[in-house]
């Protein structure tokens, strides 16, 4: 029996305030190469309001789990000590959710839907969500709760449940509050304009959750009939932030960037406030539609940003996708919970990266090769940034780290996908803050195989690890990772490519392999990377995708050292 509460607000967006944002010219301190002026496009609209519905779920342990289908025995947990390499082999590696555990007869799966797996590590748990379900593990891979279907988890939230089985969910761990955050688009039908956010009531992810629906697409910003597609939530000190693509990236409408009142949500307040900016995509010459995507900075590490630090938003602008030029646009989101209509979104540094082409495929979408089959799979390279945009503080410096899939050789006709990654830095000395700059950038494509669906993070020692899928003419879709130490040459991942798990099967009859993977850092030591992605142990019909979860670390990161030290300077390139 369900013991839950649900409440529908009488004021869905009350007050809903419209603010036609004037153009903000970037105020840059000093000059250096690779920076251009930036401004918000005309038609940018801000709306404010409160959650229009709220419910409290029953504990996850009391929800009806998915039927455990019988099937081939999956590879079990593996534990290894760190190897002699500078970047370790997997320390823990175990199978996560797979289609066989999520049968359609139990409202836990849906034919033809990819995994879309997301996972986050906490002090004692690992939580994984896929398109149609979720599960809680301990750090050895033992199931503590679930798996439960998405529809079951959101059953008592009136704007997030219903008959929609798939969800595009992502999970985050708020280490400074010791809480778990799960976000997804609003339920269909009719339009799915909401962002749904679940916040665990306690540090235990197997317990109950406060579940909110925020109408980020609404009549005021003229998006009320637009689906809130591909939302990615981020944890920051003053709010939870999320970006999304109204009616998908192909609509050319633009992006929403929202802030949600973190303190109120952690307290279980039924009507936390929110602020949403709709930023239109720039007009481009028909028939091209401008594809715009953004991510909000996700706080990493034990150090909190200084008071009044804004949230940072990054947008990759590609001249091949409707933008005037290749740029990395950084925005500052200043939210004011005492006066939400005083909040601002200010475009600051517009950085000029090395040339890139986000179209990895000559046919635009499907070119990832698999051995022995004609089926090509989706590259997700046509404008999407890959989660997460990680933010970390080192001494006087701040870093932003992110990646996206590109044409590895700069030429889509080669049908060769690689991963472009960036580290941006800003420093503050004697009270003076520098502008953001591209500290390093590189395209990872060491051979003829395709690499895509990357996720990147940094530990407290400044080491960087990039996880991704790899596939090619002789390589089944597999999950690998690569890395660098702070003193390695800039723009390189020179420590070799390591394997979380190699696939032994191909995907048939479907182009959608998945929309993202996820790398996170263990808050227990700020050294251990945890990564989850998708693979196939066998070729089968119907497709039986599996996910893998594993951890690893760099040997130069001491898990016993409690506080980070200033980031070392790298070896200058020769």
What's the layout of helices and strands?
Layout: E1 5-8, E2 19-20, E3 35-36, E4 45-50, E5 53-56, E6 78-79, E7 92-98, E8 118-121, E9 125-130, E10 133-138, E11 143-149, H1 150-153, E12 170-174, E13 179-185, E14 195-200, E15 209-214, E16 228-235, E17 240-246, E18 254-260, H2 262-266, E19 273-280, E20 294-299, E21 311-317, E22 327-334, E23 344-351, E24 366-368, E25 377-378, E26 386-394, E27 397-407, E28 417-429, E29 432-433, E30 437-444, E31 450-458, E32 464-472, E33 475-484, E34 497-501, E35 518-521, E36 529-535, E37 546-552
Parallel strand pairs: 20-26
Antiparallel strand pairs: 1-5, 2-4, 3-23, 4-19, 5-15, 6-7, 7-37, 8-9, 9-10, 10-11, 12-13, 13-14, 14-15, 16-17, 17-18, 18-19, 20-21, 21-22, 22-23, 24-25, 26-27, 27-28, 28-29, 28-30, 31-32, 32-33, 33-34, 35-36, 36-37
Counting structural domains, the number is: 1
The overall pLDDT, averaged over residues, is 87
CATH architecture annotation name: 6 Propeller
Strand content range: 35-45%
Span between termini: 68 Å
How would you portray this structure in words?
The protein is mostly beta strands. The chain has a single domain (9-68, 85-550), classed as Neuraminidase, CATH 2.120.10. Helices cover 2% and strands 40% of the residues. The protein is built from 2 helices and 37 strands. The protein has helices spanning 150-153, 262-266; strands at residues 5-8, 19-20, 35-36, 45-50, 53-56, 78-79, 92-98, 118-121, 125-130, 133-138, 143-149, 170-174, 179-185, 195-200, 209-214, 228-235, 240-246, 254-260, 273-280, 294-299, 311-317, 327-334, 344-351, 366-368, 377-378, 386-394, 397-407, 417-429, 432-433, 437-444, 450-458, 464-472, 475-484, 497-501, 518-521, 529-535, 546-552. Strands 3, 20, 21, 22, 23, 26, 27, 28, 29 and 30 form a 10-stranded mixed β-sheet that branches. Residues 1-5, 14-34, 69-74 and 563-569 have low confidence and may be disordered.
